[in-house]
Amino acid sequence: MTTTSGSAKWQGGIKDGKGAISTQSGALKDYPYGFSSRFEGKPGSNPEELIGAAHAACFTMALSLILGEAKLTAEHMETKADVTLEKQGDGFAITSVHLTLNAKIPGAEKATFEELADKAKAGCPVSKLLNTKITLDATLQ
């Protein structure tokens, strides 16, 4: 078992306030986030893009493992995770994540590749964490 951490600081109100996020590894150190970066497209990060990065990384690593079990090795894989945040009632909810994978895997057949990618989508720990609709477009080059 492994445990890692991330942290957040916040000062001020929801619209005029400012936050900073950090990760245990130091990959992010007091990186800014706030209302304007979350809802208005301004510079800075937001929880949804961090979830997207985590999901893309987790899915891609899971697929690498599953490919190895099938005696396949990826030459290249790139995954994007589009995380959708929508207003629901009095609050907001992440309503879906759409994964887009482009991969070059020597010796892989399309049907096998799609089956293994679906297995990774369902089995990666971040997919299991998210209580939302997860879709996948997987392209084999």
UniProtKB/TrEMBL annotation:
It comes from the Bacteria. GO terms for molecular function: peroxidase activity. InterPro entries: KH_dom-like_a/b, OsmC/Ohr_fam, OsmC/Ohrsf, OsmC_Ohr_Peroxiredoxin, Peroxiredoxin_OsmC. Coiled coil: none annotated. Gene3D superfamilies: 3.30.300.20. GO terms for biological process: response to oxidative stress. This is Peroxiredoxin. It comes from Bradyrhizobium valentinum.
